[in-house]
Amino acid sequence: MTPRIFTPGPHQIAMIEHALEHPRCAIWAGMGMGKTSSALTVLNGLQLLEPGLDLVLAPRRVAKDTWPNETQKWASLRNLEIVPVIGTESERIVALKVDASTNTINYDNLPWLIEYLLVNKLPWRWSRVVADESTRLKNFRLRGGGGQRARAIARVAHARVRRWINLTGMPSPNGLKDLWGQTWFLDAGARLGKSFTAFEQRWFAWLRRPAPGKQHEAMQIALPGAQQQIEAQLRDICITLDPKDYFDIQDPIVSPVYVDLPAKARFHYQEMEKKMFTEIALHEIEAMTAAARTMKCLQLANGAVYIDDSGAWVETHDAKLQALESIVEEAAGMPVLVAIQFKSDRARILRAFPGAVDVATDSGMATFRAGRAPIGIGHPASMGHGIDGLQDVTNICAIFGHWWNLEEYAQFIARIGPVRQQQSGHNRPTHVYPIVARDTIDELVMARRESKREVQDLLLEAMKRRGT
User: 85 pLDDT exceeds 80?
Assistant: First the structure.
């Protein structure tokens, strides 16, 4: 790869200046806006100004490929040697012994890293940390709870690390509560509360209301003015960059495709919804909890339901497959990227569409990237990070199976989204086709995703730093 001259755009200059001016800060910028190259430019400059080693926390694929590959793209970054601490334990140990300016590590290996250093009486040697996709730290809690990964890195976050940068495009995918854990790594609770409990007590209240079959149902809601106050607390260390402020882009064109369940499938769906039980083809299917019922209803909406814990499933309808067929036909030869949720979705689509591939496999991804497959199937949880180049293949995606996670949903679409289309020189809109089973849980999932988005969009809008 021939390195190019890195000429940062106005949005990247804003990121670089913000990170240099604020030793502990957050950069909230959408996918495709150059967060990685900007952060590496900051680290490169700090190697001269503040000599020290850097550690990048990231999802596994991103830690293994995206960060190291970025240094090969730009001439100004070629002097940075990035060594991923990835793989088997022996491979990680070897990587730690390599003399490098920067290490990358996936979040899942953080507990191992801390324990390895302690057991072997080795010092913590990284003075700067970049947390890529910092929402992975959102569940951190001071007094137990939260994830092991966040608790592990918290032990050194303030005692041993001089600079800390949080990077994400979606800081609060599930609401304002996602902000406390991430922000603690920046200021140890100075802005949002020394503990999560203090944060909750200051800005949230419990609402109790009657619920069928229960004495009361409790839910926690934000107090009036909470969002504005939280935004004000974070404004000095957080910068938000909206692609629409820097690029002439359109929003994705979202065109829901509604399908009606056949009568028999509707009967089974309603039985599961109301009774948490139904019988299909002599198989008794029961949901023992409300959460299990939700899962079964999502499966039934898609057209196949698991009959037991073995992974066996039975098909109930093909309405969504027919809808997907019409989307593929309308694409007129343009490949379609399809989001699935269950292994049964994958099996049914691969069976129904000869030539379709699973982009979770190396061979499937290679075939899809080459434009030789009409459909590329992917689960949003595995498609969100570290996968590039799909915008050159297509501008069309379909949502076959729905889920609550707004971040995964948005990241999936962003793989072929407007920013990436424009950056690759494609003057074309992004088309999104959610396939929705009418009068089912599909509609509820979509509504909840949109309600979460409203909170996040307000937050990001308020945190903009135009002209500052």
Answer: yes
